[in-house]
Design a protein that fits this description.
Elements (H helix, E strand, L loop, with lengths): L5 H4 L3 H6 L3 E5 H6 L10 E6 L26 H7 L6 E7 L9 H12 L22 E6 L3 H16 L13
Antiparallel strand pairs: 1-4, 2-3, 2-4
């Protein structure tokens, strides 16, 4: 059996653990504990799916209808965006905000509320909520002084390794 190339291993659960990420709780666990383990620091977070089987896409997204917009996309769009063999589905950032009131806990709270059908402003990662079994996705995080730069680095490195951005990242690096 051949091992995974280091460039790809970096984007697995083991790779994120080795890179200092913590948490590794399922969406369901984070919801049931009300994100009690998630720090309030600025940082980056990742959503991973360790199940290597092909996903099943839902005809209707579980995501919230923010500003009245249905987050559902055709399942063909999801299938075309899927990155075969990749565990990393989405990476995001949490800045501290102008008053320091934001951070990982706040941003992940928005992500999970959106995924639970609430009309909140976290449409980043919206494709996650149209994949069956999303409650089993693992979420991990790491504090970062410059979350935007760290997120951009993760996206660029993933693109270099896979030739695409993670499944639920609609866009690549940004300012």
């Amino acid at each position: 059996m051949t091992s995974m190339p280091a460039a790809l291993e970096r984007f697995t659960e083991a790779g994120f653990r080795a890179a200092g990420f913590s948490g590794f709780q399922t969406v369901g666990e984070l919801r049931s504990t009300k994100l009690e383990a998630v720090p309030r620091d600025p940082g980056v977070y990742v959503v991973i799916r360790v199940d290597s089987s092909s996903p099943t896409y839902l005809a209707q997204s579980a995501g919230g209808w923010f500003k009245g917009n249905d987050p559902t996309v055709p399942t063909a769009t999801l299938a075309a965006k899927w990155v075969a063999g990749a565990q990393l589905l989405y990476c995001g950032k949490a800045t501290g905000g102008s008053k320091g009131a934001n951070g990982l806990g706040k941003r992940l709270g928005l992500l999970l509320r959106y995924g639970a059908g609430k009309p909140v402003g976290h449409q980043g990662g919206r494709y996650l909520w149209q994949v069956a079994g999303a409650d089993e996705f693992l979420i991990a995080w790491r504090a970062a002084e410059d979350p935007t730069a760290e997120e951009n680095r993760l996206l660029a490195d993933f693109f270099e390794a896979y030739g695409a951005y993670p499944f639920a990242n609609i866009a690549g690096p940004r300012a």
